[in-house]
Amino acid sequence: xEILANHHQALLLKRTISxxxxxxSDVRPLSVLEDTLNYLCNxxxxxxxxxxxxxxxxxxxxxxxxxxLSMQNISCSRVVSMYERMVKFHIISQHKLRRxxxxxxxxxxxxxxxxxxxxxxxxFNLYEANRTTASIFKNEAEFFSFYVLLHLxxxxxxxxxxxxxxxxxxxxHIMKSTEMNFARKxxxxxxxxxxxxxxxxxxSEASYLQYCIxxxxxxxxxxxxxxxxxYGGYKPQPFPLATLSKLLMMKEWDVASFCNDSGLQTSVDExxxxxxxxxxxxxIHPKGGLHKYYPLExxxxxRFSVEL
Length: 308
What we know:
Blueprint: H1 7-13, H2 30-42, H3 51-72, H4 77-97, H5 105-129, H6 140-149, H7 163-169, H8 172-175, H9 178-192, H10 195-205, H11 208-232, E1 239-240, H12 241-248, H13 252-261, E2 267-268, E3 274-276, H14 299-302
Antiparallel strand pairs: 1-3, 2-3
Helix pairs in contact: 2-3, 2-4, 3-4, 3-5, 4-5, 4-11, 5-6, 6-9, 6-11, 9-10, 10-11, 12-13
């Protein structure tokens, strides 16, 4: 891969030794691991190669960084910062991989999510190892909120522990944080089917990284909303797509496409406005699944940028 620009970078990134034959002299010191991580993070926005190629390159080398840190049993605040950056990488990668196509994307997404949950669990242990009285790291509450939001997806690899049991071990000052209050609220809206509150609270309150985790569930909530509008509407009064567009926070023509793929027909009224006739009996799960549709229409998220 040509993104290895020079010999110095190659030395930083080289990691081909088997674990079984690993010697103490082969393990990279913390300063080298930090330099390697800095270099890898700078590659995330590279456009020289398709993202799945860039992701695969960074993924393997970050995993080896965690291996070296684990072998040396380092748990200082510098390592906490490194793990936070690696968790961010996996969250953003999951977000970007959903926009990629190819036969191996599903596998890459699964492995990426697997490493995300493992890195997050290690990060929580590091927080605890460095905790003094009621102090917390600057971003700790947000990273705890990620774990809660990952439970929106039933396919996320769990730890075998229920969320209610996990909550009992979370420090009270984190449970009371704005970030955790948001995550618990979103989880409640999702489970109770409060689609309007789910969508609009996400748009107005989520951080970019929280949004990246929530995004796969948004179309699931949109599908629920369309079902409720269809079955709960008054048949002589078709539901305006303009109103549905605002409710679902997506472009009007995308709403029409979403409805059509859900087996529902749209129409145009006498004034030329697109509508969804209700009480249709042809509603189905959207053809092609829920992954092909669009993010929230939000100027706030468009302005977000995250540095690793």
